[in-house]
Amino acid sequence: MHMFRGGGWGSYIYFDEKTDKPKNVSWALIKRVLTYAKPYRFRIIAVLVLIVISQLLGLLNPFLFGLLIDSAILQGNVDLLNRIALVIVCLPILNGVIAITQRWLNSSIGEGVIYELRSNLYEHLQKMSLRFFTNTRTGELMSRLNDDVIGAQSAINSTLISIFTTITSVIFTLTVMLLLEWRLTLLGLLVLPLFVLPARRVGKTLRTLVRQQMEVNASMNAMMNETLNVSGALLVKLFGRTHTEVQRFESRAREVADKGVRRAVIGSGLFAVLGLISAMGMAITYWVGGQLVIEGVFKVGLIVTFAMYLGQIYGPLQALANMPVEFATSMVSFERVFEVLDMPLDIDEKPDAIALQDLRGEVVFDQVSFNYSAGGTTGLRHIDRGDYEDLPAFSRLNGSDNGKANGGEPTSDPLTLPEVQTANSQAREVALQNISFTIKPGQLAALVGPSGAGKTTITYLLPRLYDPSSGRIYIDGHDLRDVQLDSLAHNIGMVTQETYLFHDTVRMNLLYAKPDATQAEIEAAARAANIHDFIMGLKDGYDTIVGERGYRLSGGEKQRIAIARVILKDPRILVLDEATSHLDSQSEALIQAALERVMSGRTSLVIAHRLSTILKANIILVLDRGQIVEQGTHSELLAHGGLYATLYETQFNREREIAI
């Protein structure tokens, strides 16, 4: 991306290098940036006042040195010499107090801006749908929350303050110089055009480098997040890819370093050139002024004073020449932050949404269709795998199964029998098509069907993790789109196939469902899930740290804790996605008995892979290729002799073979 300034301070025009289309950074963006500083306007005013005072004090030193030479030393005025010396000593003390106060104000403003930006960004991300997270790298999000927010904070805390300081310094210093000697002032400013040309030319390159550096740094962070979490590290080790991943990381880290070195060298080169131009201006002033002193036109003190002022103004003039570039560069972070904040919410809550109260638990799917790739937010960017080809998020197209990680059906489905093959592959573009069924209050509905048939998608639509592409879903006659999201989450409890636990204690993971739960309630839920005795056998009991994503526990132990967490929540509607798939036979029997008690009187939607669950179901929904091909009771479906009968007979035969 490159930039040039079009017109005054009102607009900076950027050109995207990929599309070559202009992107305007106008007053609208600047005003939006300033809204984050609005709560601190009184502190900002105080900072600006301190800057003015500091700049005025900075103008005293050259004047005092000129006075010291002409009126004190050359005139032999000891009393004036003593007073000037005392003032020269006091000035740094006063400047130090002002600097400390200004620094405190700056820090409080900057940290406040960080807080507001991070809070707004995190809140917005929490409201994004599951579709967004399945198509966005976590490392990229972390980069936006950290690096870009800090960069945005620096824009307000440093760049904008620097702009005001620079403008104030130039105005004050130039005014004093003109009052002292306007001819020497004009002579010293002859080199000013030489400041502007290199600053603008190099500034374009610097801004491009800043954005590129942010992007490659985000890419590096994303890779670290992928490969340094427990799952990623395990995958790397199991496939012996340690050397490959180290090489890929070194490649990205080297790219980050190269961008940083190039940025530093170009910046240093710019300042070296500007320093040379400053020296030329100083030399011209000293040479002409010295000639005039020799001729008796000027006093020595005036030349010394003027030279000091000239030295003070060249720095701000350099900054002023480069200010449009610096300002535009600082906007890069805000652009990246606002890119996330401006992403629309595809799962949004209506202003007049209702709260579910006294829920009976009737669930109705009315002609529901769903396509993972249609509509909604797709994420921040394509998935960058370094040396490999970029992999955009995809749905079940051309026979590929993108798996649960991308928001589709899980690639493995223990609920079904892998040896049972349907006539057609489950590969398709539409995940669900014209799904209609009704679960009456208190009923148990079992979802069965081949892997990838759409079972998990149905369980994701009920708690509104996604919205249907068409059709309606009702709970007690209320369209889910008309219901408050928190109210919906409060009334639906879900145990997913992949159990997630926070890196915290067992107790805190359970309390996530009900923060005000008592110890007795926690233990009762754990007993119902057949995990209490195991927990008490741990060294620290309920205060045991479960590790990253619960990896210190077995799959069955994690799943029982997840079940206990839902039991503690005590929802009106239960959604169980292969809730007992990792349990041994003994634990499964105890859990099944516990779930039977828990599901009593509640509406339950279960992806059923055990015959015992299927036999207890009030209604069985048989899915194939995203459609309900059969529904009814166990006996009705067996009599029908369709897909369910095939699955049942295979399951029964396998269980009988195991028993023998």
Concise overview:
The protein has 660 residues and is α/β, with parallel strands linked by helices.
Descriptive tags:
660 residues, alpha/beta, ABC transporter transmembrane region fold, Rossmann fold, six-stranded mixed β-sheet, four-stranded antiparallel β-sheet, 21 helices, 13 strands, elongated, disordered N terminus, disordered C terminus
Describe the 3D structure.
The protein has helices at residues 27-35, 41-58, 60-73, 78-127, 130-134, 138-180, 182-188, 192-228, 230-238, 242-294, 300-341, 455-461, 485-491, 506-511, 519-528, 532-537, 555-569, 585-599, 611-616, 634-640, 643-659; strands spanning 2-5, 12-15, 22-25, 363-370, 432-439, 444-448, 470-475, 478-479, 492-495, 573-577, 603-607, 619-624, 627-632. The protein is built from 21 helices and 13 strands. Helix 2 runs antiparallel to helix 4 and helix 3 packs antiparallel against helix 11. Helices cover 58% and strands 10% of the residues. The chain folds into two domains: 2-341, Up-down Bundle (ABC transporter transmembrane region fold); 363-495 and 571-659, P-loop containing nucleotide triphosphate hydrolases (Rossmann fold, 3-Layer(aba) Sandwich), CATH 3.40.50. Mean pLDDT is 76; it is low at 1-24, 382-423 and 655-660. It is of the alpha/beta class.
